[in-house]
Design a protein that fits this description.
Oligomer: single chain
Helix content: 55-70%
Order of helices and strands: EHEHEHEHEHHHHHHHHHHH
Number of helices: 15
Shape: elongated
Largest sheet: 5 strands, parallel
Distance between the termini: 80 Å
Structural class: alpha/beta
Radius of gyration: 26 Å
Mean pLDDT: 85
Low-confidence stretches: 1-18
Length: 338
């Protein structure tokens, strides 16, 4: 007979202790696949650490049909521990949702239920029901902000036992992009392969081409007034599949950062200035170096060039590459307008 997993005490509603991976119900909410998969892996690993014979039933989209949950969660003759994973719970039928809600009110001792839900309005009744009974909830939302991806990379390195500076983390985000799986894989690779410090040069060495061809690399060279280098990097970026709209976004961020720093009150301490402008301190140092040749008129002309390029790459022009090249040249000239 398999030993029973000693979970935290369950109330009639099955409320778990906060953070317990063996809580009666874990709710992973969001559309970021890597985070959702990690939520599942955490529960399964904890269950099998407590009982190596734990049975795992991983139900793909549409596999949980009416009547199945009762069968999966019915008491076993041998008190078998089980993890039941339900993916895309927002798409469950009304009858199945009714069964899951009934189960949530009185979960089985030997069962750990994991519900993966995309969030949003679809299937919200099930989401609300799980929250009402105190399900352990893990946020798995898509990371749309660059700052969130940067924080993710820092956390990955910390989890791997490495301390990596902000500029190296930013270089990795610039090189890889927004795919969390690729970012996590890159962190793991660098940690395994590099014995010494992981800095910007190491990132560039491992990701040559990708790092140099990123949209932010194009923007950095443009705002520094390096027209020829910016054009070369732009052409390489476009040839390797970087979307034109990402380049215009990076150009806009680069020029706006210079404008924000140029108009900031003087005499502020670095930490206060970072908070005031919404930039990390390392980025303020970089922008301060980049803004040396800029004037107020130059910033205005550059922003106009970015707006025109953005309209062109979103359907308003015939040749997005030409529109970007024109914007890059204008920005590089503006960088020497003082």
């Amino acid at each position: 007979m398999s030993p029973k997993i000693e979970n935290t005490p369950r109330s009639a509603a099955g409320k778990p202790a906060s953070g317990d991976p063996l809580a009666p119900v874990t709710l992973a909410v969001g559309q970021e696949e890597l985070l959702a998969e990690r939520a599942v892996q955490e529960v399964v690993a904890a269950a099998r650490a407590a009982d190596a014979d734990t049975d795992v039933r991983d139900l793909g989209p549409g596999e949980l049909q009416p009547g199945m949950l009762a069968e999966l969660t019915s008491p076993s003759l041998f008190a078998e521990n089980k993890v039941v994973v339900v993916r895309q719970a927002q798409d469950l039928s009304a009858d199945t949702v009714k069964e899951v809600k009934a189960y949530l009110a009185s979960p089985a001792e030997e069962i750990t239920l994991v519900l993966l839900h995309a969030g949003g309005a679809k299937g919200k009744a099930l989401l609300d029901a799980a929250r009402k009974v105190g399900a352990r909830e893990i946020a798995c939302a898509k990371m749309t902000k660059p700052a969130d991806r940067l924080a993710f990379v820092r956390a990955e390195f910390r989890a791997l036992g490495r301390s990596v500076g902000s500029e190296a983390c930013q270089a990795l985000v610039d090189a890889i992009g927004s795919d969390l799986r690729e970012l996590a894989s890159a962190c793991a690779q660098l940690t395994a392969d590099v014995e010494g410090a992981i800095d910007e040069r190491v990132v560039a060495r491992y990701y040559t081409g990708r790092a140099e061809a990123s949209s932010f690399a194009v923007a950095d060279k443009a705002v520094e007034g390096q027209a020829a280098e910016a054009l070369e990097t732009l052409r390489w970026a476009l040839s390797t599949g970087v979307a034109p709209v990402l380049v215009t976004s990076a150009l806009a961020q680069g020029v706006r950062s210079i404008g924000k720093l140029a108009s900031a009150p003087g005499g502020m301490r670095p930490g206060d200035l970072a908070r005031e402008l919404g930039m990390p301190p390392w980025k303020i140092d970089r922008v301060r170096r980049q803004m040396r040749g800029w004037s107020a008129d130059g910033v205005a002309h550059a922003l106009q060039a970015v707006a025109e390029a953005d309209a062109a790459v979103k359907g308003g022009g015939y040749d997005p590459a030409y529109a970007l090249e024109k914007a890059v040249v204008t920005i590089a000239r503006a960088a020497r307008s003082r």
